[in-house]
Amino acid sequence: MELSKETLTKIDEVIPRYPEKRSAALMVIHLIQDELGSISDETCSWIADKLEIKPINVKELITFYPMLRETPWAKKHIRVCRTLPCALRGSYGTCKILEEKLGVKEGHVRDDGEFSIEFMECLADCGEGPVVMVGEDTYENIEGKNAEKFADLLVQEKLDNSKDFTSYENGLVSKSPVSKPTKKK
Amino acid sequence: MIKKNTPKERRIILKHADDPKYSNKIGCYLKNDGYSMLKKAFKMKPEEIGEEVMKSGVRGRGGAGFPAGMKWKFLDRKSGKPIYLICNADESEPGTFKDRQIMHKDPHQLIEGMMIAAYAIQAKQAFIYIRAEFFKGAHILEEAIAEAKEKNFCGDNILGSSYSCDLVVHRGAGAYICGEETGLIESLEGKRPNPRIKPPYFPAVLGLYQCPTIVNNVETLCNVKHVLEIGGEEFSKIGKPNNTGTRIWCVSGQVKKPGYYEFECGALTLGEMIYDVCGGLLPGRTLKAVIPGGSSSKILRADERFSGKLKDGTDFDWGIEDIPLDFDGPASVGSMSGSGGIIIMDDTVDMVEAMANINAFYAHESCGQCTPCREGSLWMKKITKRMCEGDARDEDADLLLSVANQIEGRTICAFGEAAAWPTQSFIAKFRNEFEEKAKNGNNKPSLQLI
């Protein structure tokens, strides 16, 4: 297992934040998974050594938490919210459109490793559903024709530059041609 | 529905959040009188702050609605062990998205509230447990904490005093159960988040590392700052007795303007929220049902009548639109205001499908520690899914109810209830739809929910 200097520095920085080393487990796993994409058995042992715990103590976290991975997702990982509030706004349709346009089934990685789609449980942005995440960015009101356009831009790698779909965290809501933005005074 | 006046929001927590000129940087926060309450707090005795919070009557905004001042009072101060403060920023109850707004748009308000609370309980260290899906939220908080540290609002010798308290952002990894406070504590200890049994593991006595620990929700901790600003006594006059302060209601589902709206507790009814604030239902639709406090809370049918006695002894006879939005209103009609997540469903919704959607959530999120919950939630999912796939049976409604009844009250944590209440209430309120499924086969509804 090879880790970049940057990740190693961050790991050494995060562990002493906690009164007990084991507490840093999730944060260390996140740092490594961000770089490697998944956590192998070898990595589990490395983390266990680092935190002075047993490899099984790390493995049991990887197998429990939905966002921790034994095999990596694709380069561009798409998360679609599945839970009731988003479903009421059409997220099942959104997921289907993305599956078709990106050419990969939900829960899978496309053969070329370019895209993967995951149906997630509530992403806590229910007022602007259906909610879709691309990597760490959140996009809102992705439904119907809007979802088709969104998927096209995603495939063409033009999503980031699009004025129609602006990531929530940049302080703006999506200017959706289908659903109206719902910001109010 | 014709209304004289649309009820007005009263924004205390979200006062600045949506101001386009407001930013989440410390400079902006300081310009708006930020951290002045922390300075005030440090001129008070820690127990005086607790007294103000007690007087304010502020109740927990995470779901259970337990008075925050009382929670702090339970803290075991005699053990001699270090005390910890944890902010529960897991925000995972479906239908809830208020803490997201606070953390992304006004992180310093949370940090100030937390440092006041930490000083009040004399915490040795404080943590923000944030759900991992909030990638940007965690970055924003880390940056804000670094800014606050630089100005000496947290970290060593805060504001030049002898009190030090470090604030650490800890990310979860996508598990709903980490919103349960003892599960959260296990997770923060680096373990699987299997909740602990109470008694004896009340966090205020045996919490993080078996030390006294206070776990409060994001919105609750922000309120601490405002309690100091307004004064406990005055704060208790906002809203209604036993329902003090404002609440951020999160409306989702089938209304024209879903979103988050902050109102004084009890300032408006559910009907005013749906028809006036949220612009009503989508064109041509009628109201079918409302889940008033996140997906765990019991569903209410649009044509129900609710009657009974309120806590103060007065009689009530309400339709769904008359239910006051506060803590006690939804509770008095047999549901709860929970985390403030109001999910609206109109006449296009197939209730068996909606149930199947919710059951899939709970089956996915059960930690698996207690057999009734692990197995029961999975069976409820399987049964409702089968019903939606054209294989419904006459006995399914009773079968579902029997599974739910065997989960409720038989688990270590309240997840068991959270998983059972939707099924129990859906069957109680919409039994006919569950029975119709068996009779008429699977009539494909317009909207796919499963």
SSE layout:
The complex is a heterodimer of chains A (185) and B (450).
Chain A: H1 5-14, H2 25-36, H3 41-51, H4 55-62, E1 76-81, H5 84-88, H6 91-102, E2 115-120, E3 132-134, E4 137-139, H7 145-155
Parallel strand pairs in A: 1-2
Antiparallel strand pairs in A: 1-3, 3-4
Helix pairs in contact in A: 1-2, 3-4, 6-7
Chain B: H1 26-31, H2 36-42, H3 46-56, H4 68-73, E1 84-89, H5 98-105, H6 107-121, E2 125-130, H7 135-150, E3 166-171, H8 181-188, E4 213-217, H9 218-230, H10 232-235, E5 239-240, E6 243-244, E7 246-253, E8 259-264, H11 270-277, E9 287-291, E10 300-301, E11 305-309, E12 315-319, H12 328-332, E13 341-346, H13 351-365, H14 371-388, H15 396-407, H16 415-440
Parallel strand pairs in B: 1-2, 1-4, 2-3, 7-13
Antiparallel strand pairs in B: 5-6, 7-8, 9-10, 9-13, 11-12
Task: List descriptors.
heterodimer; A: 185 residues; alpha+beta; Glutaredoxin; 2 domains; 10% strand; disordered C terminus; B: 450 residues; Ubiquitin-like (UB roll); 5-stranded mixed beta sheet
Tell me what the structure shows.
The complex is a heterodimer of chains A (185) and B (450). With 185 residues, chain A is of the alpha+beta class. Chain A has helices spanning 5-14, 25-36, 41-51, 55-62, 84-88, 91-102, 145-155; strands spanning 76-81, 115-120, 132-134, 137-139. Chain A is elongated. Chain B has 450 residues and is of the alpha/beta class. Chain B folds into three domains: 26-237, Rossmann fold (3-Layer(aba) Sandwich), CATH 3.40.50.11540; 240-346, Ubiquitin-like (UB roll), CATH 3.10.20; 351-440, de novo design (two linked rop proteins). Chain B has helices spanning 26-31, 36-42, 46-56, 68-73, 98-105, 107-121, 135-150, 181-188, 218-230, 232-235, 270-277, 328-332, 351-365, 371-388, 396-407, 415-440; strands spanning 84-89, 125-130, 166-171, 213-217, 239-240, 243-244, 246-253, 259-264, 287-291, 300-301, 305-309, 315-319, 341-346. In chain B, helix 5 crosses helix 6 (107-121). Chain B is globular and about 75 Å long. Chains A and B meet through helix 2, helix 4 and helix 5 of A and helix 5, helix 7, strand 3, strand 7 and strand 13 of B.
